[in-house]
Amino acid sequence: MNPQIAAAFAVLPRYLGWHVALSASALSLGLIIGLPLAVAAARAPRLRWVSLTLASLVQTIPSLALLALFYPLLLAISAALAPLHVKLPALGFLPSLLALTLYSILPILRNTVAGLRGLDPAVVEAADGIGMTWAQKLARVEAPLAAPVAMAGVRTAAVWTIGAATLSTPVGQTSLGDYIFSGLQTENWVFVLFGCAASAVLAIAVDQLLGVVEVGLERRDVRRVIIGAATLAIGAAAALMPLLAGAGAKDRYVVGAKNFSEQFILAELISGRLRSAGARVETKEGLGSAVAFRALQSNDLDVYVDYSGTLWANVLHRKDIPPRAALLAELTRQLKTRYGVTVLGSLGFENAYALAMKADQARSLGVKSLDDLSGRAGQLTLGADLEFLSRPEWAGLQKAYGLQFKSQRSFNPTFMYRAIEGGEADVISAFSSDGRIAADHLVTLSDPKGAIPAYDAVVLISPKRAADRRLISALTPLLGAIPVERMRDANLTVDRDADKKTPAEAARALAAAIP
Amino acid sequence: MDAGVEIDKVVKTYGSAPAVDPAVDHVSLSIPTGQFVALVGASGSGKTTLLKMVNRLIEPDAGSVRIGGEDVLSADPPTLRRRIGYVFQGVGLFPHLTVSENIAMVPSLLGWRKAEIAARVAELLELVDLPAETAARRSGALSGGQQQRVGVARALAARPTIMLMDEPFGALDPVTRDALGQAYRALHDALGLTTLMVTHDVQEAILLADRIVVMKGGRVLADDTPRALMRGHADPDVEALIATPRRQAERVRALIEGRV
Question: Most C-beta atoms within 10 A of its C-beta, which of A116, A307, A362, A470?
Fold first, then answer.
């Protein structure tokens, strides 16, 4: 089998298990909320208007944004509940569950209301006239007659939920979306397709089984209802088995990774070392930059790699740019006292933001430094990754060199390199440890005014694990052990088109070179 | 509850009172046990509203309805309705249930034993003249006349003594309608029922009822036996209502006697 596909199958049980756990919980919660609400709304016009409008409104929020919004919302709720010593996890299962539940309510609500309101008025009058109580009428007449229409809504909700659950990856919940997000970052299209196919197959299977239940309800065929429901239950239980097998282990380390190749490789490297030390490890990949630090600070993550300059500007909100060593020392002190986060040390390489151009274009324009660029920027297009333009580093650069580009476009990091290759951007916000800089014949422009801080890759440890000997002794050998060339090579093996490696393979190769 | 129905000065207004005329305006009727009363009148005369106040599908704004001396407003509505048969033009058979499950509904709500319910269903199918094999069918597979026979059987299932019927045969063709009317009148007599039937068809009222109550604008215009009404009435509206069936009857009699 193709090694990419083999790698995809290897993690399928865990991804699928979480995907099923998440979608099934969200759909169940959606039913628990949606069905009683629909029964009440079918009778009360005002409640009907309000609930259907709100549920429709939720649908207009892009599902990725809805998931993302639950992160600050849960942080705020946790802050409000702090006096009660209640702490809600703001990342992972809970925000995903809540967002998907909200998402699933509309079709359930709308169809159930339509089913109840579409009943023959004569049948309802008969139910009243022969002396049924409110509950008897609901159970014996309204529910069975509205069930087929309501069930169609449940099917829609199930398909939506399973599809949208792939978007829970960026908020730190493992799902089939992990294939799609990590595949997108590392240009591993096999992974992207595998993730899409897996979630599509799951959605179709669930939809067809719910369809069997629906037909059973329509034809009053109890056998079909039982077959459909039992197959669903057995399937869900089977998908959840791998999770249950891994559950119960309390001393599990959660390793985080942001959303680019280097982070995936380093997370695999850290996980590998922890596993060798006999620990159980779980990874949360594809996290947003700010999300990752907050998650670590609140112990939702135990360890991940971040970059000193990023933390300096985005977490400490510092605008001054001290020398590399002084910055790292001050950062280490501040993160400890302010957030209880331990900076274990630098891995030995820098991954700085650096503006890069095609070597031949830079030569013909005579641009070597950012100073040279400032005069030429008006004719050029800047291609930036998704967060660069809103980061303080960009503001600093603009201020120091007065950079005014003809236009600015944001790309997913992967497509940013494609864009400069294809001429859709002339200058990009590259990363200095990126193997594609050399591979794509790009040059990075020097920063004579020192507007961009140093970006030492540092290992961060959560407050909870600050004194964890196993963790610290497992990771200490990594400190200073990865020179930038080695990191670039590792990144390139994952990012290149031919003879592509998975982040895990790249991490193994990297680990082999470390004593 | 083996007693008649006492309707005492009931008023019902839909909407706010001074702006709208009451749908039922201080109507009183005393219906002794065993009587078959037809409520006739045009649409909007208040006859259906009056009927539905007996089993509390509609509650009066003023006045009272007593059954066997007990005010219906003091009874729990579902309990009250299970003791009163209710048949209406829409029939309202439960489409997801079989004929026998429909008929068995009230006994099952009352917690009868299974064997008892099964025996009662068989008895009722015979009573309303439906073949036994219809028991397992769903209501959609029946003709309109058969459906209303099931409706009557369902209403009679828990042995009520009072039957409320709202245009029960209104949607049926004339032949079926006549047959069902006659069959029901026979049941009324055989079971000793008290029946209050709303109809806009005076001829049906004359042929089936012991007593006809004519309503208009929420008030009672006439309240008498069919025989007395056929002899003529002082109120021009009542007279106009009776005139047509009387003339038709005389024409038919003349035809039969060979005079024309």
Answer: A307
